[in-house]
Design brief:
The protein is about 20% helix and about 25% strand. Strand 5 and strand 6 form a beta hairpin. It is built from three helices and nine strands.
Length: about 180
C-alpha cells in the first residue's frame, strides 16, 4: 500500500507511525559508465546511481512540497518540486562527484514515499492483527523487492534470509490497544 500503509492500518483499528513524505529526484544526460554501484553519502543528503543506459540518478532525501487538504496529506495530488531542494541536491552531488558538473540535467520529479517515526522500515505482522502484514518505510523505493522477499518468507512461516527483528512492527504495539 506504500504511502497509504498507515491509513490502511487505521482501517483495521491499528495505529502505526507511518507518514507520507515527498522527495525530489533528478536525472542527468547519458554518459559513459563510471559508477557500478549505488552510492549513499553518510554525512550528506545524497544518493547516486547510474542506469544501464548511462543516466545518473541523483537523490538523497531532498524534500518536495506535499499538499494538504483539511490538515491531512492529499495523496491524490502530485507533490510540487521545491526549487531550493533541486538546486542543493545537484550542488551536493557535484561537490562529491565533480564529474557530474559537466552533465546536463534532463529532468527532475517528485515522488511520495513512507517514513516511519524511527526512520526504520516496518516489516512483518501488524500487532494485534493476525494475518495482516506490512512492508513500508525505510528505503522501500530501493529495497522493495528485498522487503517483499523477506515478508513472503515470514508469511509462509519460513525463517527470513536476514535478521529483520529490528524492523518488526511489534515495536509499536503500544500504539494499538485492541
Amino acid at each position: 500500500a506504500g504511502v497509504w500503509s498507515g491509513r490502511i492500518a487505521q482501517m483495521t483499528g491499528s495505529q502505526l507511525p507511518v507518514s507520507p513524505i515527498a522527495l525530489t529526484m533528478t536525472a542527468t544526460a547519458r554518459t559513459a559508465p563510471f559508477m557500478d554501484y549505488l552510492f549513499q553519502h553518510v554525512g550528506r543528503r545524497l544518493s547516486l546511481k547510474q542506469t544501464a543506459e548511462g543516466t545518473v540518478l541523483i537523490g538523497g532525501g531532498w524534500p518536495s512540497k506535499l499538499h494538504h487538504r483539511n490538515g491531512i496529506a492529499d495523496l491524490e495530488r502530485k507533490p510540487s518540486l521545491n526549487l531550493d531542494s533541486l538546486q542543493r541536491s545537484v550542488h551536493t552531488a557535484c561537490s562529491v562527484v565533480p564529474q557530474l558538473a559537466s552533465l546536463p540535467v534532463l529532468r527532475s520529479w517528485t515522488g511520495v514515499t513512507s517514513l516511519v517515526a524511527d526512520q526504520l522500515p516496518l516489516l512483518g505482522q501488524v500487532p494485534h492483527r493476525p494475518g495482516l502484514f506490512i512492508a513500508t518505510g525505510g528505503a522501500a523505493f530501493t529495497l522493495g523487492l528485498t522487503y517483499a522477499h523477506l515478508l513472503v518468507a515470514q508469511m509462509l512461516g519460513q525463517p527470513p534470509s536476514l535478521d529483520i527483528s529490528a524492523y518488526d512492527p511489534d515495536r509499536f504495539r503500544s500504539l494499538t490497544f485492541a
